[in-house]
Amino acid sequence: MARVISVEMERFPIAGTFTISRGSKTEAEVVTVTITDGGRSGRGECVPYKRYGETMEGVRAAIEAMRDPIIAGIDRTALLAAMPAGAARNAIDCALWDLEAKLTGTPVAAAIGVLPTRPLETAYTLSLAEPEAMAAQARANAMRPLLKVKIGGDNDMARIRAVTEAAPESRIVLDANEGWTDETVEANLAFAAQHGIALVEQPLPAGQDEILRRIAHPVPVCADESVHAAKDLDALVGLYDAVNIKLDKSGGLTEALKLRDRARDLGFGIMVGCMVGTSLAMAPAVLLAHDADFVDLDGPLLLTRDREPGLVYRGSLVSPPDSVLWG
Questions:
Q1: What is the dihedral of CA 147, 277, 55, 154, to 10 degrees?
Q2: Residue 246 annotated among the catalytic residues of the structure
Q3: Domains in the chain and their CATH numbers?
Q4: Which of 57, 60, 66, 277 has the most CB within a 10 Å radius?
Q5: pTM for the complete prediction?
Q6: Known catalytic residue: 150?
Q7: Inter-helix orientation angle 253-265/279-288, to 10°
Q8: Residue 222 forms beta bridges with which residues?
Q9: Tell me: the pLDDT tens digits for 93-150?
Q10: Residue 251 — left, alpha, or beta (φ > 0 → left; ψ -120 to 50 → alpha)?
């Protein structure tokens, strides 16, 4: 029996508004791939990202263009050569991982060597807003051990002060989403260090970050938009201290595993992050994140509804996926 593939565009409302330095959104727009073979089905979800020129329609078209190779039985290794990194390849790659697990009876966790699995502590993200509003968000989540705080505006020192005072017991990661400049980065990093910040993510625009090689890093600096695949890493040595691995950037779990291993070899710290998606998108990343230094897989916590069944979150602990969901 030949494989069957279906592609669906879905929308999940966000609780309130999710805001970063580049804009706001009120729903998670995702593309879901289902590949069926031998009476078993594997699923993968991706989140098209405008920052990388992706749209829902474009990602769906890229997946549809792979219909014949998928039906013919393309494997994950061949997929890496057949498609560029990005959301479309991520959905197909994760669907193939899930399908393999369903057909062979071998869980993905066993295949990638993370048994026994365990719950992980994830960051919880606070949207960019004025300092007072961000303090209120931080205060409401001050019981969480790790907060990720979106910054990247003209008033970031006030934001840093507001959230650290409102959540004094939480470790805090700042995510500037490329919003700082050569003129502000040194003072902002020094201010972050004075306030006990654990990590600063992508302070400068990708490709415009050479100053990071020449200035002090009183807080470790993590690449996000600057790193997609393992081939990007050599150029980041000396610029960044850590890298944020996201499946939608790497184009799936297969490349993400290579990226993680190469990053470790080069001495980078590891964060495993996400776009705003459902539990189906988070599930493979939870397994990838089992040896990460920072885990940021809170996408479903930002939604008003998730898939059923979804991942189980207890406070800031996220449990590994059940096989009914993925893997």
A1: -10
A2: yes
A3: 4-108 (3.30.390.10), 120-318 (3.20.20.120)
A4: 277
A5: 0.96
A6: yes
A7: 30
A8: 201, 242
A9: 999 999 999 999 999 999 999 999 999 999 999 999 999 999 999 999 999 999 999 9
A10: left
